[in-house]
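Request:
Um, any thoughts?
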Amino acid sequence: MTQDAGEHSQVDDASATAPPPPAGSAGFSRRRLVVGAAGGAVAGAAVGAGITAAVLRPAAAAGADTAPEATDSVELNKSVPFYDQVNQAGIRTPPQRHCVYMTFNLTAGATRQSLQVLLARWSAAISQLVQGRPIGPIEPARPDAVGTDTGEAEGLAPASLTVTVGLGPGVFDDRFDLADKRPALLQPLPRIPGDTLKPELTGGDLSIQACADDPQVAYHAVRNLARMVTSTAQTHWVVLGFGRASAGPGQETPRNLMGFKDGTRNVSSDADYDQFVWLKDAGWMTGGTYQVARKILMTIETWDFDRISDQQRIFGRTKDEGAPLSGEKEFDTPDFALKTDGAHVIDQASHIALAAPENNAGVKILRRGYNFTDGLNDQGLLDAGLLFISYQNDPQHFVDLQAKLGRFDLLNEYIRHVGSAIFAVPPAPKTGRYIAQELFE
């Protein structure tokens, strides 16, 4: 939680809708790529040119062909392009209202080719899902066949769905002969002060972040992509997020479950994205970034009984307006040197003081978090908190900020970091290609 650390029509089951495979593609058709999700791995499929040809060509978008406007209004008919963008959608895209985040571990039997096939099939499916389209038949022609698409999003609009795919450190180990293409800064996160991480909520080889303005649309996307992993991977950990907890350009600042505005000073300008988020001159990762995901539990009941003056001292902001304690309005620049009767008006150990760019050599990270709740814990208390997701072109920026917060943040009395992972997020694929295809070329 770094508050001030500075964003339906059905696919035809006939192969006639697929682009013709080139010579030597061994018939690696779009139908086998996407519809094969229900029938197991694509056996005997050619790799390389065949997979390239098999990726779905984008159909006409169901809505606008650009990212959603920076506004708090919800236009469910909007679709966000998947292909032919510089960066993957779901990073700078104005945060939608719901998120499903899932990680996967590659199995012992996974191969370079099966990983390649999975990324190609995911890309093909995502290009359909973001347009509000199913990924294949919901009701197959044969009554004894299994539906390719699970059907719960049938009739629903695209709802600005974005699906962002990340690659964990394990993708670049000796199993897949990809070590020479490991992104320069992709390493498992070190232990950070205050971490109480659970193994079942830590790490992962692949990540999917599905965000939409309709929770069922986001859930449908992850559910159907998870069905495609077959024997190549298995699910690891998942968080269902609601009520975005970070602000995009032009959006009203949302609130976390502690009732405070979160994301007031988030990355927003082109200059900040270029300086702190996007990778440059990074080979196949140029235009990509690094994703850090953290599951942060909040001791909600204890927090709710703390006096308001102490809550505001902990955050360094007023609860209602969200103004720094040194100012009156939310977007007033905090004055960390201001004192009254010899004491700092904003406590030097407050959340905003420790995370502010002014106090961290100007460093900013892009936050894209969501609130979550998992019902009740075994003590009958609310099991809830923040799914913290950040994007940065240097993971050390996150590590340095969080290490400082982990040591000194007054908020630590009320939170616990229980889940953590890091992923490299490649740039968006071009039409006819798939995510991270450059890895295999």
Notes: Residues 98-139+147-440 form one domain. The chain has a mean pLDDT of 87.
